Amino acid sequence: MKVYTKTGDKGTTALFGGTRVPKHHIRIDSYGTIDELNSYIGLIRDQEINEQYKTVLIEIQDRLFTVGAILATDPEKMILKNGKERLNIPKISEMDILYLEKQIDLMEEKLPPMTHFVLPGGHQTVSFCHIARCICRRAERLSVALNELEPVNEQVLMYLNRLSDYLFVLARKLTFDLGASEVKWIPRKEM
């Protein structure tokens, strides 16, 4: 199988199910941003961090492939007229969302309470987490915008929301683990 197909040379691409759309379509932008996020999570996983975090990140990357597959599917092509699924696309489940919540809770048990917003940075690995969090928020915004035009599975939207929370808490936990400083944002008082 060749990597290049030449079918996209005129600026269109095929969704799962065969529907062709322009490469600038919001659906393409949505799952393309998921791909970008997945790559950044791989970069975090490549850092010198606790193996447990790496295990969780691999699970998240797997789930992001599922999110990408869902977003890459034309919703009109998913269900047959008799109500059965036409395409065998994996799902994001409530268990996937609860898994992220559990991981957040485990990390937060070991962190001091947050009293201020924090400035991104302090260590390269922490910065990678903040970049991934921002990309996750963009993916969520794009998916919500897509949902206003065409239906997006509600679990996908919930998963992305929870994942950005996870990435924020992971950044804080890695700051703690790495002994980096967490710089609080304290608004300036106007004089």
How does this structure look, described?
The chain is mainly alpha-helical and 191 residues long. Helix content is 58%, strand content 5%. The strands form two sheets. The protein has a two-stranded antiparallel sheet with strand order 1-2. A two-stranded antiparallel sheet has the order 3-4. The longest helix has 26 residues, at 124-149.
Features:
single chain, 191 residues, mainly alpha, two-stranded antiparallel sheet, 6 helices, 58% helix, 5% strand, elongated
Poorly predicted runs? none
Q: What is the strand tally?
A: 4
Give the radius of gyration: 19 Å
Give the helix tally.
6
Order of helices and strands: EEHHHHEHHE
Main sheet? 2 strands, antiparallel
Q: Estimate the mean pLDDT confidence.
A: 89
Order of strands, widest sheet:
1-2
Range of strand content: 5-15%
Helix fraction, binned, reads: 55-70%
Counting helices, strands and paired strands, the structural category is mainly alpha
The N- to C-terminal Cα distance equals 66 Å
What would the principal axes of the Cα set say about the shape? elongated
List the helices and strands and how they pair.
Layout: E1 12-14, E2 20-22, H1 26-45, H2 51-71, H3 75-78, H4 94-108, E3 117-118, H5 124-149, H6 154-177, E4 184-185
Antiparallel strand pairs: 1-2, 3-4
Short description:
The chain has 191 residues and is mainly alpha-helical.
